[in-house]
Amino acid sequence: MANFAAGIFLVVLRPFKVGDAISGAGVTGDVREIGLFATTIDTGDNVRVFIGNNKLFSDNIVNYSANPARRVDLRAQLAHGVDPHAVIAALAARIHQIPNVVPTPAPQLGILEYNAAGTLLYVRPFCNNLHFGQVADDTQRIIGEVTGGLPVPAPHHVERHA
After folding, report:
1. Model confidence pLDDT, tens digit, residues 6-17
2. Is the pLDDT of residue 3 over 60?
3. How many other C-beta atoms can be found within 10 angstroms of the C-beta atom of residue 155?
4. Which of 147, 142, 153 is CA-nearest to residue 119?
5. Cβ count within 10 A of residue 159
6. Each residue of 16-33: pLDDT tens digit?
7. pTM above the 0.90 mark?
8. How far apart (Å, rounded) are the C-alpha atoms in residues 31 and 135?
9. Are 16 and 65 in contact (CB under 8 A)?
10. Please, what is the Cα angle at 77 between 75 and 80, to 5 degrees?
11. How many CB atoms lie under 10 A from the CB of residue 2?
12. Fewer CB within 10 Å: C terminus or N terminus of the chain?
C-alpha cells in the first residue's frame, strides 16, 4: 500500500518524468516508466532497475535533467613554474570550440589551489545533460592537449634547516 501511495505522490508532484536522468534510492539512470507501485530506471551500464515507489519517494531524488544546463567539473594539475594564466587562456579558447558546450552559463576556469605539485586549476564547461559524457571526454582530451608539452607536475618537499 505504501508503494501505491508513493506512486500517487510521484504522479502528482512530478519531481521527474519519463526520459529524465535521475538519482534516487541508490540508483542513477534514465527513467523509463513511472508506475503506481514501481519506477523503472535504465542505468548507464544498460541495466534495468525496478524501484519500489515508497523507497524512491522516501529518499533524496536528484534530477539531472530538470535544468537546461549541467556543469562538468574537471581539474588540471600544473607543475611549478608553469604560468597558470596562460594555460587558462589556452583552455578557454579551446573549450568554446567543443561541440555541445553551451555559451550560457559561460565555462568557468580558474585557480583552485596551490599545492605541493604546483597549481591546480578548475575547468567547468556547461552542457545539456544529454551531452554530459561527450563534453566531459572532449574537455579532458583538450586539457591533455594543452598541458601535454608542459613539465610534469610532481610534489616538491622543501627541507628547512634551523
Report:
1. 656 666 667 889
2. no
3. 9
4. 153
5. 4
6. 899 999 999 999 999 999
7. no
8. 22
9. yes
10. 155
11. 13
12. C
C-alpha cell at 2: 505504501
Sequence-distant contacts of 12-18: CB under 8 A, at least 24 apart? 15/61, 15/63, 16/61, 16/63, 16/65, 16/66
Distance CA 155, CA 150 (A): 15
Residue located via cell numbers 563534453: 135
pLDDT tens digits for range 32-83: 999 888 899 999 999 999 999 888 888 889 999 999 999 999 999 999 999 9
Distances (CA, A) of 72 to 1, 36, 48, 117, 132: 40, 34, 26, 23, 7
Which residue is listed with cell 504522479? 11
**Residue-wise burial string across 40-58, b where 16 or more C-beta atoms lie within 10 A, e elsewhere:** bbbeeeeeebebbbbbbbe
Angle at which helices 84-95 and 132-147 pack, to 10 degrees? Answer: 140
Share of the chain above pLDDT 90, in %: 71
Residue 111: all three cell numbers together: 585557480
What letter represents residue 119's amino acid? T
